[in-house]
């Protein structure tokens, strides 16, 4: 009986020893395996970091290229704008004094010709009354008289003032005089006003000096 108990105790002790040895040795294996795994993980991280650092500089040329393209586009736009501006400036026409005089004179003559044509239609119309015809005749004669006076005034102004050209335009009670002159003064303007009033009656007179074309 004692032998059986002794054997049983020895068996239990041996099991306890085996289990204790197993539990003691197992953590050591786990600890020894973990550094290798950590090294692999660290190497993988270093590899990915290197890949990221190697790939990152590739984006810089793209930015430089886009900036170059942007500057090129801006310069092209500026050059095109300059070309368009130069074209517009080339199309701008600058009228000289001679052209202004010619245009004003032609405009005045066209207006008078139109007025006289309408009056002649009334004068020759069979539908117009005698009163209308007489009034049209008076207006027609007044326009003709004004034309003669204006031509006379222009001749006198040019001869007395020594001006190369002069334009007289009558609009109702107002008379506008445009004189082509390189130099002008208030004294010369007063002379022209007095001359026009002596020939054309007491009307409001305006004088404008226009320098001749160079």
TrEMBL record:
<feature type="transmembrane region" description="Helical">
    <location>
        <begin position="7"/>
        <end position="25"/>
    </location>
</feature>
<feature type="region of interest" description="Disordered">
    <location>
        <begin position="28"/>
        <end position="135"/>
    </location>
</feature>
<dbReference type="InterPro" id="IPR024232">
    <property type="entry name" value="SpoIIIAH"/>
</dbReference>
<keyword id="KW-0812">Transmembrane</keyword>
<keyword id="KW-1133">Transmembrane helix</keyword>
<keyword id="KW-0472">Membrane</keyword>
<dbReference type="InterPro" id="IPR038503">
    <property type="entry name" value="SpoIIIAH_sf"/>
</dbReference>
<feature type="compositionally biased region" description="Basic and acidic residues">
    <location>
        <begin position="56"/>
        <end position="90"/>
    </location>
</feature>
<feature type="compositionally biased region" description="Basic and acidic residues">
    <location>
        <begin position="107"/>
        <end position="119"/>
    </location>
</feature>
<dbReference type="Pfam" id="PF12685">
    <property type="entry name" value="SpoIIIAH"/>
</dbReference>
<protein>
    <recommendedName>
        <fullName>Stage III sporulation protein AH</fullName>
    </recommendedName>
</protein>
